[in-house]
Amino acid sequence: MRKVFKNLWGGALTTAFAVAMAAPALALEFDNPTEGWNILWHELVIDLVIIGTLFGGIALIWLFVYKAKNPNDHGQGPTLSTSSAIGWALIPAAVFMADDFFLAAKGWALWNTQRTVPEGAMEVKVRAERWAWEFDYGNGVVSDTLTVPVGQPVVLRMTAKDDPAGRDVLHSFGMPHFRMTEDVMPGRTTYIWFKATEAVDTVVTCREYCGDGHSSMYSTVSAKAEADFNQWMADELAALEDNGTKQTASVTVVGSGDKL
Amino acid sequence: MSSTFKEWLFTTDHKRIGVLYLIGSTAAFVVAGIMALIIRLEQMDPGAQYVTAGTYNNALYFHGAAMILAFLIPGLTGFAANYFLPLMIGAPDVAFPRINAFSVWLFWVAIVLALLQTGIVAGGTAVDVMWTGYPPYSVDTAGNTSFYVFTVHLLGFSSILGAVNFMVTVIYMRAPGMGWNQLNVFVWTTVAAFVLQLIFIPVLAAAVTLLLFDKYLGTNFFNPYNGGDVLLYQNLFWFYSHPAVYVIFLPAAGIIMEIVATMGKNKVFNYKACIYGGVFGITAIGGEVWIHHLYVTGMPDWLRVGMMVTTLLISVPVGLYVMSMWGTLYKASITYNTAMMYAAACYYLVLLGGLTGIPLAMTSITVHMSETSFVHAHFHFIMAMFSTFAVFASVYYWFPKMTGRLADSMLSYLGFWLTFIGVNMTFWPLFIIGVDGMPRRYMDYEMFPQFASYHHISTYGALVVSAGVACMVINWVVSAFNGKPSPDNPWGSKSLEWTHCPNPPGPGNFPKPVTVSEDWTPYNYGK
């Protein structure tokens, strides 16, 4: 019985150790979801390579070492006493649980960053339909590509066409460069935010099956230096004026305390 | 109608029903495999090459639905469970043999229905809703969604009947003296799979029935414009379909454990932790993680983070099962043959498939990975490789039991190596380009021309796999008629199906009724 408790203590201590390890992770803050994703992914790959090498190596060695020397031999695997059987269940369970909570804490910290839109973010409305993307800047400028300024957070409010003329189907807005995806659905509005740190031309693709044109439903996301962005926006507005469409409003900016 | 044909068609013998399941599921596997080749060839280069988008999407639908519903589930809980579960517990048949026959008939009707949709109605109304059938697309499409719905209904009823049948069989028909701790691991994992089927299939049946109503009767369950909800279906669907992963994984893992214990002539390491921690744990938590399929659907933030924790915790019971899998190798005395080669490969496959699931369990990582080929490669390692290899391994392992002949030959080893090398060629490149954003279910990827060389390797891999599978199927057919005759217990197993009945067992299975002693276990090789 004492042995059983000894093993229980082992499990408890391992769990405590894991919680202690995980606690600092909760305090982690990532100020940019893209960068945060890359950091966490890098750590995960290391974690997985260690576990994979350990388990894979053991299996490989044992599969060779314990090859039958004589076809009549039988295995000599240990017969576990009750206490060691409990130990061999609780300690691994505690170790796995520890790693789980450790990862969950890190994942949660990044999740908070991903879901909290910073003050001063520029808002763009995204509308999806089979098989095109439409980006509405709120000031009359509507484009089929997304152009954003470097250094300023951008929040996308996204929905799919849903009106009497025709309801659309599910789509998903996937930007691999910025490590961000969210579904775009008729009848619901979703949001994501991101911040470009350098000028880049990259793609957004549809990530939810939407029919024959699914794989041609993509567009460009272009991050421009602030001056270039302002120039681009001015050109777009000038083009609107030329068409006789009057500028109606300015670009929406998320203020503090805005409900998302 | 010849009498042999009649005997097989109207059979109530669990062994023949098992073989019927094997033939049906192998047929589904071959057709769905051809669909996979169409998909891979089309993805070889950017742009459209061989087929139209409609045909491509139909191939995607058929490949997914048939592999999961018509190959893996019937291959494991139909073929393997039917044939061997009664033998392992020393029972003369299942509890309700006629219900069992009805199950396999439903299964065959579903197979025929599924094949009809590709063969006959392929002119513009072929099903193109993926195996998931998400509305509103599945409601709006010109494709014939009802084929999908009725196939799911038939297979669902077949599985529910099987579930009741096998649970009663295990509870009431064990050989006298056989306690719960003396059951084969495969018996436990199969029972767990059937418990999941019984609880969760009705939810799937409800979901697809509502889909049918929306499409053909004009109801609005999933139509947001008239007050319905597009996400309701996904919740119902994955509420069944995530547990369905364990319906497949558990019996597959059980088969691997049987083979490793037998070929290593070793007892299962920490049996009670494996069953009461691993198998029971997976069954208990398996139904509380379905939101990880909806991580990017705008579900409430707290739910997405909550199910990240439950999803990660799945690694605890799976980890306990893995400890037993690994521990059973320790100080074993392993004899290698084709079945053991597949089982050894499964250690690597389950490790890679399991570990790549960890990032996907994390919401904040999946917001980038969702619907990329990383996801695709991850679940293929568990489904298309680990579980499929388990089905193949089970055929080699029990081949002497079913036919009285051995299936090990040069061709069987060649088939194994080609398949094993081929699957790695096919899916490793998909992991790599998945992280860089290659979406799943794309026939064209002109926005990512840099991925073409990865797709080349992947497609060549798929061709290598087909060669391997062809070797295997030819070898099965040839060996069934011309294989080397097998001794009664070729592997020296201690399990009842090998020790107490002939190859193949006759009607009623056991020449003499079986009783087992208190210290008997299927793994007592030391005694």
Description of the molecule:
The complex is a heterodimer of chains A (260) and B (527). Chain A has 260 residues and is an alpha+beta fold. Helix content of chain A is 42%, strand content 23%. Chain A is built from 4 helices and 12 strands, in the order αααββββββββββββα. Chain A has a 5-stranded mixed β-sheet, with no helix packed on it. In chain A, strand 1 and strand 2 (132-136) form a beta hairpin. Chain A is elongated. Chain A starts with a helix and ends in an 18-residue tail after the last helix. The mean pLDDT of chain A is 87. Chain B is an all-alpha fold. Chain B is built from 17 helices and no strands. Chain B has helices at residues 3-9, 14-43, 53-88, 97-119, 137-140, 145-172, 185-217, 230-263, 271-285, 301-313, 315-327, 338-361, 363-369, 373-403, 410-435, 452-482, 496-499. In chain B, helix 4 (97-119) packs antiparallel against helix 6 and helix 7 packs antiparallel against helix 8 (230-263). Chain B is globular. The model of chain B has no long low-confidence stretch (mean pLDDT 93). The interface between A and B is large, with 84 and 87 residues.
Spans of chain B of at least 5 consecutive residues whose pLDDT stays below 50 are none
Oligomer: heterodimer
Instruction: Tell me the number of strands of chain B.
Output: 0
Structural class by secondary-structure content of chain A: alpha+beta
Instruction: Tell me the distance between the termini of chain B.
Output: 51 Å
Number of helices of chain B: 17
* Average of pLDDT of chain B: 93
Helix content of chain B: 55-70%
Query: First CA to last CA of chain A: what distance?
Result: 56 Å
The whole-angstrom Rg of chain B is: 23 Å
Return Rg of chain A in Å.
27 Å
What is the global morphology of chain B? globular
Helices of chain A, by number, come to 4
Low-pLDDT parts of chain A are none
- Outline the biggest β-sheet of chain B: none
